[in-house]
Amino acid sequence: MDSRPSADAWPPVVTGARPPLPVKIVIAGGFGVGKTTAVSSISEIPVLTTEAAMTQAGAGIDLTSHTPGKTTTTVALDFGCITIDDEIKLYIFGTPGQDRFGFMWHDLTAGALGALVIVDTRRLDDCYGAVDYFEHNDTPFVVAVNRFNGRLDHHLEDVRWALAIPDSTPLISFDARERASVRDALLSVLQRSLQRAEHRVLRR
Amino acid sequence: MSSAEHDPSRLRPYLDRTVGSSAEVPADYGQAGDGKASGLRPYLLTGGRARPLDADLEIEAQVMTTPAGRADAGRLTFELRDIVVLCQQPIAIAEMAARLGLHLGVARVLAGDLIALGYLAVRRPDSGLHNDVQIIERVIRGLQTIR
Questions:
Q1: What is the count of structural domains for chain B?
Q2: pLDDT for A88-107, tens place per residue?
Q3: Which are the contacts of A204, defined by CB distance < 8 A and separation ≥ 6?
Q4: Which of A36, A50, A202 to mutate to test the interface with B (most CBs of B within 10 A)?
Q5: Could you say which residues from 15 to 54 on chain B have a Cβ atom under 8 Å away from some Cβ of chain A?
Q6: N or C: which end of chain A has fewer CB within 10 A?
Q7: For the purposes of burial, counting CB atoms within 10 Å of the CB of B35, is it exposed (0-12), middle (13-18) or buried (19 or more)?
Q8: CATH of domain A19-203
């Protein structure tokens, strides 16, 4: 490909004068819980993947003194996007990490409008880390039980009890394969974001 | 440029290892999907740095090649040149990383360097944006139109 296009090819005409304003929502949860399925159901582009480093707090005995209790693992980060209007572009990052999180997790989630934590009721403990993280960081989030094969095996009240999340945290069920269902799950996240933002405006 | 965007073999380098992508993908650097180079030296590309010059550079920040970046592309090293060639249109740093098969941390560092050099323009999410009622309402309205 010619890497020296003629001068009149600049500026590029495709997207108008300014780059879009990026915003993001994070989808978190354990391995195989449906994060990538959810992203691909709603994204307007095929799901993209990149590798990212995750620092995890180690379990058990520390073997080395200069890396106290931490290991760095490389994980795949899946994401997609939705063009919201002529200016805003929404990115949706499916963020792995069913264990404890370290500083790279902060890089991935900083500035997010909110988060959707997907739960597999067969492996509830996989989402504890994400729930803890978002609670402590004051990130608006919604917990969503993925209806595998369209079925919900447990009552939501029982899931809420098992996860020990307060009544103020929305708990929904959805189907990661269904575009409309993922859309509604993201909308419930944004309602939480909106509530928090309005609360902050009132406090000023 | 647009052909690269629509070529499915470039979209999911890590997931689909069966596609014979060697013809489409430059073979000369760490294409993470090929299982050979990526584990060995991602941070060699950054001189060992794990953090970008601006440590807060977001992975969704939009980058776009400047005229200066275009003019000097030929003098840049492989990885930096690939970035300024790819980013003729605005693209998120994460998207750039995925399309070039770069580790996300490496892509952040290199993008930060190119921004500092004036070769990439950047549009970042405004600070405090996640608390901006009007922005959130616009995102809600946009999502509601999805059927």
A1: 1
A2: 999 999 987 645 545 567 77
A3: none
A4: A50
A5: 15, 32, 38-39, 50
A6: C
A7: exposed
A8: 3.40.50.300
